[in-house]
Write a structure and sequence with these properties.
This protein is of the alpha/beta class and 474 residues long. It contains 14 helices and 16 strands. The strands form five sheets. The protein has an eight-stranded mixed sheet with strand order 4-12-2-1-13-14-16-15, with helices on both faces. Strands 3-5 form a two-stranded antiparallel ribbon. This is Dynein axonemal assembly factor 3.
Length: 474
């Protein structure tokens, strides 16, 4: 298999991770779970799954600061969008509806018109908040901090958000863009693509423990890019947050092409839909799973949002005591039908159009404030510079690195980690275009890089999706 084809399947932009959400502070990772002031560095995580999952394990007295480095500003923009949706208050959107909207934006190339309105409202408010940081160099929400990005990077974020809010007047058909990627990836196998899809599912994903991904849902996603259909409706509107620009060389000139350049093989089900603490969701009948990856994703994301709501409070009600406990348990049952006639659309936040923009901004960012939790975004090129900045020396309790960015790790990593730090690296098990030999070789190379950086492999590896290392004692 050629390298070109391998890259083509996974894409050149990582919109979601190639492994399930993990609490990065568990005893499985650290031996003994750390408490107090905690710092985590995410390198190329692509989505907020680890952030949301880690929050669920925090104690009342813990504080968590997550530092995020991505390899492009388009991925940073999407991380901000998904976090914004996660922090919408119950007054603006019910938990069940927020779960549906989040998963649509997260994993669908095409979304419903109502979801598009929510997306446009969210990016408009994010654009406004980042514009404010350009003038005051402060963050406009206690949990989301973009002030550490360079001015040109924040300008780029605003440009991206405005493009998502007001896309080109004649948008390309997303289905045609998706189909062109599939044709390029499969080549002469395109006419027998359903057989290729079935092989990837049964011989690769199912063999890797992802039996809950159903053939019907997987094939539909491989055909159209639509992974989550939780409501009856028309999924025909382009999800602008999954479109990006790629530069090609054409006859000596560089040509920028806007399209979908992410994963078309592994699926967005991996982040939230292949593992669950609710064993009822893993029951089988006639040797077939009764619930599928979409159902599990919905239950898992709803449980995460329930945890956020118990730890968080609305900015508009920040003086009122939060009577809910700041810990939560996994959802015990299947998501029930919910009546949402009284739900106000997220785009209706009662903003008076005559208000001053600054006053509008205060209302528009009526998001949950999570007690003791902060997410800061760092420049894409900052990883190699962190060891030379005093504020980051011996700071991080856990560092997570994706498979796509592991090549950026080096021996200086040790200087920014706490004495009992853990290093979690995503392996290539779910990069389906790789052979077993390539996957095994990648795992060996990851171990070499970690050992060269001053870390040693732990002996309590709970899965082969992530490699876990602990810092060697001085």
């Amino acid at each position: 298999m050629s390298v070109g084809r391998t890259v083509e399947g996974a894409g050149c932009v990582t919109w979601w991770g190639f492994g399930p959400a993990r609490d990065l502070l568990t005893s499985d990772t650290h031996g003994v779970r750390p408490h107090g002031e905690l710092n985590i560095l995410l390198v190329g995580s692509a989505d907020p799954r680890h952030i949301l999952k880690t929050i669920t394990g925090l104690m009342d007295t813990d504080t968590l600061h997550v530092w995020v480095i991505e390899n492009s500003m388009e991925v940073v923009a999407r991380q901000l969008l998904l976090l914004y949706l996660s922090l919408l208050t119950p007054e603006n959107m019910s938990l069940h509806k927020k779960t549906e909207v989040f998963l649509e934006v997260f994993g669908n190339s095409e979304i419903r018109k109502e979801t598009e309105e929510t997306l446009k409202h969210a990016v408009a408010q994010l654009s406004l908040s980042i514009t404010n940081t350009l003038s005051s160099d402060s963050h406009t929400h206690p949990c989301l901090d973009t002030s550490l990005l360079k001015f040109k990077e924040r300008d780029e974020l605003v440009r991206i958000f405005k493009l998502w809010e007001r896309p080109p007047s004649v948008p390309e058909s997303v289905r045609k863009v998706w189909d062109a990627r599939v044709r390029q990836h499969l080549g002469t196998r395109y006419d027998s693509r359903h057989g290729c899809f079935d092989w990837d599912l049964t011989m690769k994903l199912h063999q890797s423990g992802c039996g809950v991904i159903s053939k019907h849902q997987y094939v539909k996603w491989r055909e159209s890019g639509v992974a989550f259909e939780m409501r009856e409706g028309l999924y025909q509107t382009a999800n602008q947050s999954l479109l990006s620009t790629r530069v090609f060389n054409h006859r000596g000139d560089q040509v920028a092409v806007r399209g979908y350049w992410g994963d078309i093989v592994s699926s967005p089900y991996l982040s939230f839909g292949i593992e669950t603490e609710n064993k009822n969701l893993l029951k089988k009948q006639n040797n077939q799973y009764m619930k599928m990856a979409q159902d599990i994703s919905e239950v898992n994301v709803l449980a995460l949002f329930e945890c956020l709501s118990t730890r968080g409070s609305s900015l508009l009600n920040k003086d009122e005591p939060n009577q809910l406990s700041s810990w939560c348990k996994p959802t015990d049952g299947i998501i029930e039908e919910e009546t949402i006639q009284n739900d106000a659309p997220a785009c209706q936040t009662d903003i008076d159009p005559e208000q001053h923009p600054a006053e509008q901004q205060t209302q528009a960012l009526d998001l949950l404030t999570l007690s003791g939790v902060k997410v800061s975004f760092l420049s894409p090129d900052l990883l190699s510079k962190l060891p030379f900045k005093n504020k980051y020396r011996s700071l991080f309790n856990t560092i997570f690195c994706s498979a796509s960015m592991v090549h950026q790790l080096d021996s200086s990593l040790r200087e920014i980690t706490a004495p009992d730090a853990a290093l979690v690296i995503e392996l290539a098990n779910f990069l389906l275009d790789l052979s077993k030999e390539q996957v095994s070789g990648f795992a060996d190379r990851v171990k070499e890089i970690a050992e060269e950086s001053g870390f040693t492999a732990t002996h309590n590896q709970s899965s082969d999706v992530y490699a876990i290392f602990t810092r060697k004692q001085d």
